[in-house]
Sequence to fold (146 residues):
Amino acid sequence: MRKNRLRLKHCGKITAVVILLNFLMTFPLFAEQPMEPPQSSSVKGTRLYSDFEVDILIEDLSRAAFEAIEKAAGEAAKAAVLAVVEREAAAIHEAQYWKLETEKQKETVKDIKKAGTKNAVITGLACLLGGLAVGVGGTLIIGGNR
Fold:
């Protein structure tokens, strides 16, 4: 228990130092800003597309986007199912843990009851024998004086 506490204190100190360093330090940027605007393409370097080619490009892009959306939705659904399965597994594990703890407690209670019954019987016999000894001894002492 003490080791864990020391480890947590050490982890907390490291975290605090890292957070403070992030706030106090400024990191230089190595990218240079462009000094002149990018060159625009000349008219002779520009390709003109026909309406048919534009429609085909739009259809291809739409199809690719639709497939990407379907794939992303499938991945999201898979992730959601996995999260549910993980939660269920954790719940089952915890239920099994508490079931074992309950069984241990029942066994402990049963053992305590057995020990209590045994002690009660031994105490009763001791009292009975003690009472008989005192009664018989007292009778003999009183009867012996007459």
User: Anything to note?
Assistant: Residues 51-144 form the longest helix (94 residues). The chain has a mean pLDDT of 84. The radius of gyration is 43 Å.
